[in-house]
Amino acid sequence: MRLSTAVLTLSALALALPAPEVSAETTRTIRLELPAADAGLFAVENLAGTMRVAPGTGPVLVAIATIHAEDEDLANAMKFERVLDEKGIPTLRVRYPLDQEASIRYPSRRSEDHGFLEGLFGGSNTRTKYDGEQVKVSDHQGVLLYADVEVQVPRQRLAGATFRNHVGPIEGHDVEGKIVFDSGSGDVSLARVRGEIKADTGSGDVKATDVEGKLVCDTGSGNCDITGFKGEKVSCDVGSGDVTIREVDAKLVDVDTGSGDVHVIDGDIEEFQADTGSGDVRLENRGARLARVTADTGSGDVTLRLAPGASFEALADQGSGDINMGFKDAQAIVRHKEVIGYRRGDAHIKIDVDTGSGDLTIEPGA
User: Fold this and answer.
1) Burial of 260 (C-beta count, 10 Å sphere; 0-12/13-18/19+)
2) pLDDT of 359
3) Rounded to the nearest 10 degrees, what angle do helices 2-16 and 109-120 cross at?
4) Which residues have CB under 8 Å from 64's CB, separation 6+?
5) pLDDT means per 10 residues in the chain (366 residues)?
6) How many degrees, rounded to 5, is the angle at CA 181 between CA 125 and CA 26?
7) Is the dihedral of CA 85, 90, 92, 97 positive or negative?
8) Residue 81 to residue 88: CA distance in whole angstroms
9) How does DSSP classify residue 71?
10) How far apart are CA 198 and CA 235, in angstroms?
11) In the prediction, which pLDDT does 3 show?
């Protein structure tokens, strides 16, 4: 009854409030090229909006910023310039009139989806330092001012590129090299990327498909979802969120999450490391080259589904929980009249599991 009353009250309030005024929006486009001499180590940086990175058709990098502003004066005050960052790296930076406006409004898709209720309860606010100035980016307060940036890169391996969007999502596809995709607050979406790739977001999800080489996924709060990886290493460091990796062919998969589940499905990996403060760990490995598994969870179960012919030595240190062995011919390892693990065959795979409270299950996969 209380919940129904609250919903009715909010509905009545929504009807009673006047519709927000919709001001006319001014847009302009700024095009900037990166000189060939700067194409070795460079960055592209924006404060708020979307950023999309894709192959171009020419020999030089082209960046196009579409400015959105609530009036013409603000739109004309925006610049897109080549600068040197604090480390001396050539950077194509969208420059905002932050000496005049300390609070800007970026109506992200999330705020549009949630609409009235999110605005009623405060909406989204981010405070950050950009271009030497402190600024607040909000989805409901401040002057309307943001930029959507499209980056067209040459069809060649990038030696050291950073694409940084402080507030808003980043998308990248069909690019190769040593590349960082960095969002302070927003999702990172990647497809068909090659090389040494890092996806970093303070608040948001990372989703990557069809990656080759090395991949680092780092998120403060958000999920990491990877489908299709082939290469040397996948590393995921998640403060709060789940990690799911499917169809992975790698020498090493290393996952650390403060709170969240770890699932590796359809794997052919050599070494697996997983550490979660609270959450389950699940590895489904079909390949025959697996040699090492280390899993540590404060509270959660560990499930290992191995190839039917797998030979292993599994040792478990458990505060509370059972060991469930699905390989019928595995031999128990007993210490002080307590089963602490199992051995099968020549013990090729070394398995060490530590759980504060949770079960260990080892069973044959399909």
Assistant:
1) buried
2) 95
3) 110
4) 29, 30, 31, 32, 149, 150, 152
5) 42 42 77 84 96 93 96 96 92 95 83 44 76 92 95 92 96 97 96 97 96 97 96 96 97 96 96 95 95 95 96 94 95 92 96 95 92
6) 55
7) positive
8) 15
9) S
10) 9
11) 43
Residues facing 138 on adjacent strands: 105, 125
Give how far Cα 327 sits from Cα of 282, 312, 350, 360, 365, Å: 17, 11, 16, 13, 10
Residues with Cβ within 8 Å of 107's Cβ and at least 6 positions away in sequence, in order, are: 139, 140, 144
Q: Long-range contacts of range 274-280, CB-CB < 8 Å, 24 or more positions apart?
A: 276/300, 279/242, 280/358
Q: Using CA atoms, how far apart are residues 210 and 229, in angstroms rounded to an integer? A: 6
Query: What are the angstrom distances between the C-alpha of 317 and each of 120, 280, 339?
Result: 49, 16, 10
Phi, psi (5° rounding) for residue 166? Answer: -70, -40
- Amino acid 42: pLDDT: 94
The pLDDT of residue 265 is 96
Q: What is the pLDDT of residue 35?
A: 82
Amino acid identity of residue 200, one-letter, is D
- Compute the residue count for the chain: 366
Side-chain-side CA neighbours of 119 within 13 Å: the count stands at: 16
Residue 37 has what DSSP assignment? G
Contacts of 282 (CB under 8 A, 6+ apart): 261, 262, 263, 264, 265, 302, 303, 304, 305
Rounded-to-integer distance, Cα 277 and Cα 285, Å:
23
Instruction: Name the phi and psi angles at 7, rounded to 5.
Output: -65, -45
Q: Say whether pTM exceeds 0.85.
A: yes
